[in-house]
Amino acid sequence: MTRTAFIFPGQGSQRVGMGRDLAERYPELAGSVFRAADELLGFELSRLCWEGPADELRRTDITQPAIFVTSMAAYRVWAAHAPRPVAVAGHSLGEYAALVAAGVLDWTVALGLVRRRGELMARVNETTPGAMAAVMGLAAESVEALCSDLSGAVVDVGPGGDVGPGGDGGPGGDGGDGVDVVEVANYNDDEQTVVSGTVGGVEALSRAVRKKADPAVKVVRLDVGAPFHCSLMRPVEEQFSADLDAAAFADPSVPVVANVTAAPVWTGAAARAALQAQLAGSVRWRQSMRTLVDLGVETFVELGPGRVLSGLARRSHPEVPCHPTSDVRRMEKAIGELGAGEFVGAAVRP
C-alpha cells in the first residue's frame, strides 16, 4: 500500500463555492460536517462558503473556520473511501485539521479553537495594521538578511502617531512605537518566501527587492487580513494560551509535522505547544515537506480547498505524486488511483 501523507491548506486557499459539490455528492459525509458546523457556530458558514460574498469570506474571522470546515468535509469523504496516512501536516491554519486527522483533537474542539484564533488575529490589524508579501526567485537566506537589515528601522512618525512624509507605511503603518517590523513568515519552497510585518516594513522590503533589478525576482503583496506569523502576533499568542490549555489534546496516532520546527510531534502536549508557537513563528513548510519525505512518504494528498500545497509539493519534490481533492472530480480521481480500503485512523463524527 502506498505510504501517503495528508497535507491541509491554510488561509488564502478560500474561494466562493468551496466544498459545495462534495457536500451535495456526499450529504452524509461532507454535508453533515457543514450542517454540524453551522449549528456549532450559530450562523450559516455553509452559505458563506458556497455563495459568498467573497469580501466576507476573506475576513480572517470567517476565512479560518471556513477553510477548516471545508478541509474536514474533504477529510471525511476520504476517510470513508481510502486508507489512512502514515503522517500528516498542515500549512498554518491547516495544522488544526492535521491534528484532527491524527486523532489529537476532536474536530468540534478544533473548530472552536480555529474560530477563536481567527477572531484574535483579526483584532491585531485593527490596532496595528500590517501586511504580507511573497518574494519569489530570491533565496530564503537573502530574504532573511533583508528582514534583519530593515526590521527595527525608526520611521518618521507624524502628529497623532501616523507615519509622516518620511515614513513608509501610511497612517498607522508602524508597529505602534514608530518602529517597522518585517520578518519571514513562511518558507514555502526554494523559490518562494513570504514576509510579514508592519505596512511600512513590508513596503520597505519590497522596494529593496525591486532595487536588485533582477527580472527573475518578484514581490507580490498578499490579500490577507492581518500580519500573520510574525512578532506582531505576540499578543495573540498570550491571549490564545488559555484556550489551548482548556482543550483536550491526545497523543497522535501518526506523526504530525509541526510548522515551527518541521519535526514530528509525538505527544498531545507537544502539539499544544506547537500551535501556540506558530502564531508568531515562521511556517517552515519547505522543511516540513522534506521531513515527510524523510519519513518515507510516497505520495501526498491535499485535503481542503484549492491546490496551493499541491503546487508547492510538485516544485519542491517532483518525484513524489500529489493529489488535490478540492472538488468531486479530483477527489474521486485520487481515491481511484490510491485504491479503496478500510480507514482505521481518526474519524470525523459530527
Automatic annotation (TrEMBL):
Domain of life: Bacteria
Keywords assigned: Acyltransferase, Transferase
Taxonomic source organism: Phytoactinopolyspora halotolerans
Start and end residues of each Malonyl-CoA:ACP transacylase (MAT) domain: 7-350
An example molecular function term from Gene Ontology annotations: [acyl-carrier-protein] S-malonyltransferase activity
Example GO biological process: fatty acid biosynthetic process
Annotated catalytic residues: 92, 229
Reaction catalyzed: holo-[ACP] + malonyl-CoA = malonyl-[ACP] + CoA
Protein name as it appears in the record: Malonyl CoA-acyl carrier protein transacylase
Organism classification: Bacteria, Bacillati, Actinomycetota, Actinomycetes, Jiangellales
Any single Gene Ontology cellular-component annotation: cytosol
EC assignment: 2.3.1.39
Family stated for the protein in its record: Belongs to the fabD family.
Record bears the keyword Hydrolase: no
